[in-house]
User: Fold this.
Amino acid sequence: DDQVYGFISIKTPEEMKNYSEIKSSSIFTFAEAEGTTEVVPVSVLQKYDIQYEYPCKKITLKIHSSLEAVGFLAHILEKLAKQGISCNVASGFYHDHLFVRAEEAEQVMRLLKVVIDNAH
Assistant:
């Protein structure tokens, strides 16, 4: 995925102009007490001059892991942490998705290849 995404927090939909387009462009939503987190393409956010944080790329782990799997993500995150790489994880029903700083995405892909190669 070559798209660059940004994280935003929305307290109430009414506070944001063009909310419907922002919501329809979001690839991840999580409701928290402080506000609803949305991960939206930066191009959409810039179009509406919306401030965002953590410009990142999404890396989807193509392995279908059980929702009850133990240690799978911990192993990957440990490798990233040892390289000083920040990572935000979103787990879907079928796949886990890593959001990493856009400028570190290629480095993360190389690291994941090493992890996969060493697993065989």
